[in-house]
Specification:
The chain is built from twelve helices and 20 strands. The N and C termini lie close together (8 Å). With 431 residues, the chain is α/β, with parallel strands linked by helices. The strands form five sheets. A ten-stranded mixed beta sheet has the order 9-7-5-2-10-1-11-15-19-20, with helices on both faces. Strands 14, 16, 17 and 18 form a four-stranded mixed beta sheet that branches. The protein has two domains: 313 residues, Adenylosuccinate Synthetase, Chain A, domain 3 (Alpha-Beta Complex), CATH 3.90.170.10; 96 residues, Adenylosuccinate Synthetase, subunit A, domain 2, CATH 1.10.300.10. The structure holds guanosine-5'-diphosphate (GDP), 6-O-phosphoryl inosine monophosphate and magnesium ion (MG). The site of magnesium ion has 6 residues, from loops.
Length: 431
């Protein structure tokens, strides 16, 4: 069975944990979108320090599982190399198990610079990006003439000519638009490319061909989404989104695999909501409730360390993510984080100009103004981290999940009660 794991909120839902768990039964794990803006945490056991993966698929920790980075990813080569080295230092040799698409685009040093300059120039209107060069790299992909793909590393003579032109253009752009005085150095950037060419030479393949052959051969494939559906370039809270299709709609373009290759689109949500960076967040609790969730759930960004904004579970945006993504089942994480709260709230509708909206609004300006309709549910007190089966959860915790499921009209099959691999309860039929 092939599964695609997708975040249904604003990222950081616990995708890394679930991919790591499901990879036990996978032959291949495929990271297919975004870049080093992602931070996927995997904690194998209580006594082991967790792994924070930005570009390597979260299945890479398992021996015998092949790891693929497809065309949809924007690749920061040095981050991939440092993650591989970091794993090696911890006894995991993953070099021979990693394959990278020649069609993936390279995040160049000037993309990161452009990200920082652009955000600084926007001032109060900034997006609050991760400064990983994601938007500028995808921008160059769309522009085409200023793009550099991984496959370009296989033709360094051709790349030298192209890169010289691009660096000249970027220097003119940065000085002209942003008044930047420090010029990019072509030689230094090309030297980086030569180093990457050597390091990645054995890993570059046509991942589309690889995946189709694997599908035909009946291999079990696990696709790992990055970010969350509400950060989707087309369907998220534009312009406060990332620059790729991070909802389930992005899978096909980012892999070359049809959606019908996937048997289960598994949506990941937290039992509440979080968001990093700017943009509308209707259920945000900029108060004691939000602070309690942040502290208890360790809600600080895996990539940037920024405190995450926290709020109640938003069934309106999650239902929208389920609809556009054709989500089959849900893994709900962080139930343990809610214990100790007297009452819990679920947002079941948005009011706008005195009327209940019947569909998720497309405009951030509307979302900024909606009033949430909440249902209040009794809280629970017990520490859930040692609970090992659904039946042993407190009744109030079960009632909360039951109600969330009812509102979402999508089966919640897995429930997280802690960050470790083992702290996931099976609620309904196995995936
Ligand atoms: P991702 O980007 O979706 O992979 O999520 P992140 O790794 O950025 O953030 C999720 C955080 O929650 C990580 O620190 C995980 O270790 C942690 N986590 C995941 N599931 C649970 C859970 O059920 N309970 C608790 N307490 N922590 C969890
Ligand atoms: P994972 O995969 C949470 C957010 C940034 C910012 C917006 C645009 O760990 O869930 P970008 O750098 O992509 O141009 O930033 O998107 N963002 C994330 N938020 N989790 C992520 O990834 C994110 N990746 C990007 O905070 O608001
Ligand atoms: Mg994350």
């Amino acid at each position: 069975m092939n599964t695609c794991v997708v975040g249904l909120q604003w990222g950081d839902e616990g995708k890394g944990k679930i991919v790591d768990m499901l990879s036990e039964k996978a032959d291949i794990v495929i990271r297919y979108s975004g870049g080093a803006n992602a931070g996927h945490t995997v904690q194998r056991s209580e006594n082991e320090e967790s792994f924070a993966l930005h570009l390597l698929p979260s299945g890479i920790l398992r021996d015998g599982v092949d790891s693929i980075i497809t065309n949809g990813v924007v690749l920061d080569a040095d981050i991939v190399l440092s993650e591989l080295q970091g794993l090696k230092d911890r006894g995991i040799d993953a070099y021979s198990r990693l394959k990278i698409s020649g069609r993936a685009h390279l995040v160049m040093p000037y993309h990161k610079k452009q990200d920082i300059l652009s955000e600084a120039a926007l001032g109060k209107e900034k997006i609050g990006t991760t400064a990983r060069g994601i938007g500028p790299c995808y921008g160059d992909k769309v522009a085409r003439s200023t793009a550099v793909r991984v496959a370009d590393l296989e033709d360094l003579d051709g790349l030298a000519v192209k890169l010289k032109r691009i660096v000249e253009y970027k220097n003119k752009f940065f000085t002209g638009v942003y008044g930047e005085t420090e010029l990019l150095n072509y030689e230094e950037i090309f030297a980086d490319c030569c180093r990457w060419a050597k390091a990645f030479e054995p890993m570059i393949i046509d991942t589309t061909a690889y995946l189709h052959k694997a599908w035909k051969a009946g291999k079990t494939m696990l696709f790992e989404g990055a970010q969350g559906s509400m950060l989707d370039l087309d369907h998220g809270t534009f312009p406060f989104v990332t620059s790729s299709n991070s909802s389930a709609v992005g899978l096909s373009a980012a892999t070359g695999m049809p959606a019908k290759a996937v048997d289960c689109f598994l949506g990941i949500v937290k039992a509440y909501s979080t968001r990093v960076g700017a943009g509308p967040f209707p259920t945000e609790q900029d108060n004691e409730v939000g602070d309690t969730i942040r502290v208890k759930g360790h809600e600080f960004g895996t990539t940037t360390g920024r405190p995450r904004r926290c709020g109640w579970f938003d069934a309106v945006c999650t239902s929208f993510a389920i609809q556009i993504g054709g989500i089959d089942a849900i893994a709900l994480q962080h139930l343990d984080t809610l214990s100790g709260m007297k009452e819990l709230k679920i947002c079941t509708g948005y009011m706008y100009n005195g009327e209940l909206l019947d569909f998720y609004p497309s405009e951030a300006s509307v979302l900024e103004k909606v009033q949430c309709v909440y249902e209040t549910i009794e809280g629970f007190d017990a520490d859930l981290r040692n609970v090992t089966s659904w039946d042993n959860l407190p009744e109030a915790a079960k009632a909360y999940i039951d109600r969330v499921e009812q509102v979402l009209q999508c089966p919640i099959t897995l429930v997280g009660v802690g960050p470790q691999r083992s702290q996931t309860l099976q609620r309904r039929s196995k995936l």
